[in-house]
Records
---
Amino acid sequence: MSTTLQRVRFTTAEYTRMASILAGRRTELIDGEIIEMAPIGTAHLLVVTRLQQAFGRLNDERRLLVQQPLIVDQFHEPQPDLVVLREPLARRKPRVEDCLVVIEVSDSTYATDVAIKLPAYLMAGAPAVWIVNISTHADPVVEVWTAGMSQPTLTRDVVSGAGVTVLLDAVFDGLSEIPDQEEMSG
């Protein structure tokens, strides 16, 4: 008798009910699987913080989320680095249709962000997705994706979205001095 292993895909509702079991762990739900998130490196931390500052007005309006859950569909609840909402945060977890821009800062996660998260965001109706590719710290770039595009618009100077213009020189300042494969200590 042979047995076939069957994977169990969790829904976003089931994932939410597991919160107490997962407490203290940085996880996200990707295609029904619970994935432990990579540690945040120095370059990633700096870029997310600088982008949050650039979107300051939207933060004041409660329309900016930083590393918070986003329901994409029944089997995806990632934690994008930044999300710009159309309206101030309501009394429920935000959904892709609530977003103007979804932003992933990609260092060690670039392949996964482009192959798995990006298509999920776009298929669920995200108007724009920015992949801030810092996998090579000396040559960072923002990939701007919108529905129907087979290739992104690449920018290293200025990126605009949700009524905000971001000067990338300030966001990427000093990244080249941080080793690409920084050693995690602590």
---
Amino acid sequence: MQELIPKPNDRILCVKVGKVRRENLYEMTRKYWVVKLERASQATHVLAIVDGIVETVFIPQEWKYTDDKQHEGRCEFIGKEDPKSGYIGKCVKNFYGHSANPVKYINM
């Protein structure tokens, strides 16, 4: 499996979305993250990670705190899928190491 090599100007937020799809991948990727809004808002790409591999890539257009009272204080984004991204299918396991945190920042 080829390792992810980030482009120097890409600010990437990776999120582990799990092994089982509970809903569509966009919804699983975009919401309810415990991140600092100011930092997440700098991301140019959000990568959905499944088993250490980039499943899909989204280009965030807006970040905000969720309106869902059950997940108060967490963040979500609105964005568009980038189905032609060269990051799809790349391995990010080396960026996570043994971290249990589902969120990882690259070039940020």
---
Amino acid sequence: MNAILRTVFFREFFSSLYSRSRYVTFALFHSLSGALFCTALQLAEGKFWTIQTIWTLAVALPLPIAVSLVTMPVFAGERSTGTYEPLKMLPIPLGDVAIGKFIASFISVTVCMAGSLVPWFVLCHVLKDRAPSTASLAGPAVLLLLHAFSWTALGTFSSSVARHPWVAAAGTLVMGLGLMMLWSAISHFWLGGNWLSASFPILEEILDASGGHIRLHTVVFHIGFGILALFATIRTLEANRT
């Protein structure tokens, strides 16, 4: 990590500690995931759903909303406050700026997801010896980190092209959901349905991960998509610089 990337990262990360909107985002995400977890436990009682699957679904479904709110001010916020133009004129690689902001946002999303373990620990305390081991969440946790990686990269790209933060947030959700459905259509009609979509529907991934299995193409898809979105972000920033 070079000096510029490190400086951008610490600036973004520590400024988020004093951001009221960031804590509102965390509270919203935890409220949604907690409500989904409790509701799904009641609806799935007596059915084949495992507790690990229910917890993973409760975190994965509101995750795009949390990511879009975390990443929306990355560059769009700089534009709305007028600090983007001076940043653009500095003799520094904008690629380092983009990666530093992405890493800070990804860590914020990871910390946000970690808070969703609270309902799990409460349930384990209530069930005592009948509760599954927390180690059984290793597979779902890896899957959720892959989802967070690709969504955060997409949110960074959306913020790099948007003029206002809320436009960036809406763009992240629209592009993400649109790409999910496009990939699902391609996998079904052109790939014979044998290649499971890595993002949509997410149910297959979650069922596999809750059993401790993560398919290789899932890892490749999310990492590859995230790198592609970051590359597009850097190219967009450099193009706007000139």
---
Amino acid sequence: MVPVFLYRSVVILKTIQKILIIIILQLFCKPDPMKATMMAVAFPGLGQIYNRKYWKIPLVYAGFAGLIYSAGYNSKNFTTYMIAYQDFRDNIAETKSYQQLPWLKDIDPTTYDPVLYPQTYQASAASYYKDQLLRGIDYYKRYRDLSYIGIGAWYLFSILDANVDASLFNFDVSTNLDIALFPVQISLPGGFTGAGVNMGMTITF
């Protein structure tokens, strides 16, 4: 029986071999926008490799890493605040995870906890900290969801970038092309004229 680590190593090596073959083949081919798009859809960064824009690959993965970290961080805190709020609202003395929150750790629970200290707690303090827990839940939920949306948007952006790079691969940016802006008169209703801006392109052969 083949060891698992050996099997995984073979799979990884084959994947790397395929990527290297693709890179070598594309060194001698003009990028095709459709192929670049499909490769970017199949795996983030592959479209940039296909277009030979290797310097963009760290940017693609740095964006994903940042957004994934943000999603994990906000998701963890959302769960923490949700559990803390539930513990604060129930009538079970043993559930008091809210006391471990950094901003509640140094506050005397006798002033705000109606379950553990029904004789000494203050209703206004209990209401205030309950609202703070709800705000924490809303805050981290919002940014967790925005992080997930950001991951999807960054994925689509990497696909669009690969497509645009392939489409403009042979775009002429030499000095033979010239674009100029110049003022013009525009005819307005009623026989009046107004000022405007026109754009012209000059191609030198």
